[in-house]
Design goal:
Layout lengths: L7 H13 L15 H10 L2 H18 L42 H37 L1 H15 L3 H9 L7 H12 L1 H14 L3 H8 L4 H9 L4 H24 L9 H9 L7 H28 L5
Length: about 325
């Protein structure tokens, strides 16, 4: 109990002395403990890798959803009077002739802008699909174990043994109209195995925790335990793998388009393939889509690396 015989100046002087000595004030409130995600966000805010990649991704998303803000021309409209032998006019920033024209008289800059939509849509769509499918397969296998785990693990090994690009090429070769959804489906069909393995290992570790045993003892249903108690505590490694894989899927789509098995519309891979025939006289046809592809893939890989460093306690 406080000494009521002390005068106000004496009490104030005593509090100041305690504070100067490093001791806590009587009414000081303890700092609220942060969660794993709170600590990760604090680390990400101080990471230059995360800040640079986040700025690049925001710009790419703006280009994806609002390409008309950045290029006013039609990416499929060609004018043979504007032949590719006309060199780019680098002084005309953001105009149709800024990066020159291709062999069909189409604006290279406009096609680079509109090609962002196709590549980013395929990347995000495939990442969402493989995360949902692989996450469910890995969660079911890791939680139930036994014969369920054996069957799903062997199924995962079968798909994991098929070369990713080769299997996707075989599937896409059977389609004449290769739309965005077709490419997403083909990439997802062979791409879910890594997420499934990561989720399975995380679930096996998490289900041994005391709070899971407590929920089971209280009679919680299996879906509630899986999605309320296990899933939130196994998302960290899955998010890291999914973020890094997004850039890989964008690169895979460009590779398939370059080989003639990707999207039928505007795509960086198609433009790189078309520019290869004119590389001796018009290098810009292939150069600028390639640069945009490298920047996009690098941005997502950098983001995944920053998230991994923030969520992994060993990296602190």
């Amino acid at each position: 109990m406080p000494d009521v015989t002390k005068t106000a100046p004496e009490a104030a002087a005593e509090e100041a002395a305690v504070a100067a000595a490093g001791g806590p004030l009587p009414d000081a409130k303890p700092e609220k403990a942060r969660s794993l995600w709170g600590d990760a966000w604090q680390d990400l805010r101080r990471s230059w890798i995360f800040l640079v990649s986040a700025v690049l991704i925001v710009i790419l998303l703006l280009i994806t959803f609002f390409p008309g803000w950045f290029a006013g021309a039609d990416p499929n409209k060609g004018d043979l009077a504007k032949h590719f032998l006309q060199h780019p006019k680098l002084g005309n920033l953001f105009s149709a002739d800024w990066l020159g024209y291709d062999q069909q008289g189409r604006s290279v800059y406009t096609r680079v802008i509109y090609g962002t939509r196709a590549s980013v849509a395929v990347g995000f769509g495939t990442t969402v699909a493989v995360t949902v499918v692989g996450g469910l397969v890995g969660m079911i296998a890791g939680y139930f174990g036994g014969i369920v785990d054996s069957v799903l693990s062997r199924l995962t090994d079968v798909f994991f043994g098929i070369p990713f690009l080769l299997g996707t090429m075989v599937v896409l070769n059977s389609f004449q109209d290769r739309t965005t959804w077709v490419v997403i489906g083909a990439l997802s069909f062979f791409g879910w195995t890594q997420i499934a393995r990561v989720m399975r290992g995380a679930v096996i570790t998490t289900k041994q925790s005391d709070y899971v045993h407590a929920a089971q003892a209280l009679g919680a249903s299996t879906p509630r335990i899986m999605f309320r108690h296990i899933l939130p505590n196994t998302l960290a490694p899955v998010i890291v793998v999914a973020t890094i894989s997004l850039g890989i899927y964008i690169s895979a789509e460009a590779t398939l388009s370059y080989l003639g098995l990707g999207l039928n519309g505007v795509s960086w891979g198609n433009d790189i393939s078309d520019g290869g025939a004119q590389i001796r006289v018009a290098q810009w046809i292939m150069l600028y889509p390639s640069i945009m592809l490298v920047i996009t893939v690098l941005a997502f890989i950098m983001l995944g690396e920053a998230v991994r460093n923030a969520l992994d306690p060993k990296m602190r």
